[in-house]
Write a structure and sequence with these properties.
The structure is a single chain. The protein is of the alpha+beta class. The protein has a single domain, classed as Endonuclease/exonuclease/phosphatase (Deoxyribonuclease I, Chain A, 4-Layer Sandwich), CATH 3.60.10.10. It is about 20% helix and about 25% strand. It has 7 helices and 12 strands. The protein has helices spanning about 10-15, 20-25, 80-85, 115-130, 155-160, 165-175, 205, and strands at about 1-5, 30-35, 50-55, 65, 75, 90-95, 95-105, 135-140, 180, 215-220, 225-230, 240-245. The strands form 2 sheets. The chain has a 6-stranded mixed sheet, with no helix packed on it. A 6-stranded mixed sheet has the order 5-6-7-8-10-9, covered by helices on one side. A hairpin with a 2-residue loop joins strand 6 and strand 7. It is globular and about 45 Å long.
């Protein structure tokens, strides 16, 4: 199973900037998009099962999950009505794994949404813990936090700011400690590898960035991880897409017509306020 996760920062905008080839590539069996900001699935996404979980507020947030085989089930949200209004999570169930598409809350400048972020973090931890009682879990998405100093180009000047607060970083450490693995760190230990750059100051060309997009897998999948990479040369967004390859032991999912399933309902250079 090859998976792609990408915060497209507006799907229509990403397509105008050249993202179509990646989004429609037959290389990927599952594509997870965050911050889609659309009310419907674009017509060019043909030949895949598409599951959109939009925010109630138009033009805001929203995750879109694409799969070449039909999942056994699709769940929109994590069962908390207040948190689910922003369209931040969709879970696809396959024969031997759950794949969670997650767009985490941004704490925002002045930390005005830090409490919301931490509440969402805890809710995701509870949700994945529940899923793991049935089968292993993959979480892909924009976590809106740089976990360690090596995950940010300028840690000293960003300490305590949105996406790099002690509380957010501590939660991520606790989440990993509960039985999850940062897949990228199975292959790359050094810093200097980022997934988000501000559009200002020539940050991307200078590689002044943050690693805030992750594939995290439950520990029982660790031995099946074959590849985890950042595709930092792909155009289309201020985020780079990230890639994960998992050795597939399961039978293929069913193939049918695409359908939707309902479920439970600053410092310059800091990640955008979304």
């Amino acid at each position: 199973m090859r998976l792609l996760s990408w915060n497209v920062n507006g799907l229509r905008s990403a397509v105008r900037r050249g993202a179509t080839d990646v989004l429609t590539s037959p290389r990927y069996s599952v594509v997870l998009l965050q911050e889609a900001r659309v009310e419907g699935v674009p017509e060019f996404l043909t030949g895949v099962h598409a599951y959109l979980n939009p925010a109630e507020r138009k033009g805001y947030s929203g995750v879109l999950s694409l799969s070449r085989s039909e999942p056994e089930s699709v769940i929109h949200g994590i069962g908390d009505r207040r948190l689910d209004r922003e369209g931040r999570v969709t879970t696809l169930e396959f024969p031997d794994v759950f794949v969670v598409n997650a767009y985490f809350v941004n704490a925002q400048r002045g930390l005005s949404r830090l409490a919301d972020k931490l509440e969402f973090d805890r809710a995701v931890a509870r949700w994945t813990r529940r899923l793991r009682k049935s089968k292993p879990v993959i979480v892909g998405g924009d976590f809106n936090v740089a976990h360690e100093d090596r995950d940010i180009a300028r840690p000293e000047s960003n300490r305590g700011h949105a996406g790099f607060t002690p509380q957010e970083r501590r939660w991520f450490s606790t989440f990993l400690g509960s039985g999850f693995v940062d897949a990228f760190r199975l292959f790359v230990s050094e810093g200097g590898h980022y997934t988000w750059w501000t559009y200002r100051y020539g940050a991307r060309a200078r590689n002044i960035g943050w690693r805030i997009d992750y594939f995290v897998v439950s520990s029982e999948l660790r031995s099946r991880v074959r590849r985890a990479a950042i595709l930092d040369q792909v155009p289309g967004s201020d985020h780079a897409p990230i890639e994960l390859e998992i050795a597939d032991r399961a039978r293929r999912g069913r193939s049918a017509s695409p359908s939707s399933h309902a479920g439970p309902e600053a410092v310059a250079g800091a990640p955008g306020e979304r």
